[in-house]
Amino acid sequence: LAKELxxxxxxxxxxxxxxxxxxxxxxKWDAAQTSAGELKKYGEQMAKAPKPKKGTADSWTELTGKFxxxxxxxxxxxxxxxxxxxxxxxxxxxxxxxxCHDAHKGK
Length: 107
Known about the structure:
Elements (H helix, E strand, L loop, with lengths): L1 H8 L6 H10 L3 H20 L8 H23 L3 H13 L1 H8 L3
Helix pairs in contact: 1-3, 2-3, 2-5, 3-4, 4-5, 4-6
């Protein structure tokens, strides 16, 4: 699970969200769909991950559920070859990191 979480954590920079959005912007749909599928898988795995020591179980369930939905939306947009929706989804997903970190990162 550590690999999956590290991929998700890298999403806001040069991570998988940015890569997926870049492929979509460039019209490289096979690559965009492949990377979006990986991102969706990581979102599903994060939603199943045990809650960190910091934060409440309800918060973890809510926030990882949102992440899972957002990664599924990105994958669906890539499947439809909708570059704007991929970019918008990647931006929304990477912007959501702070709320989860504030609630759950650290000891």
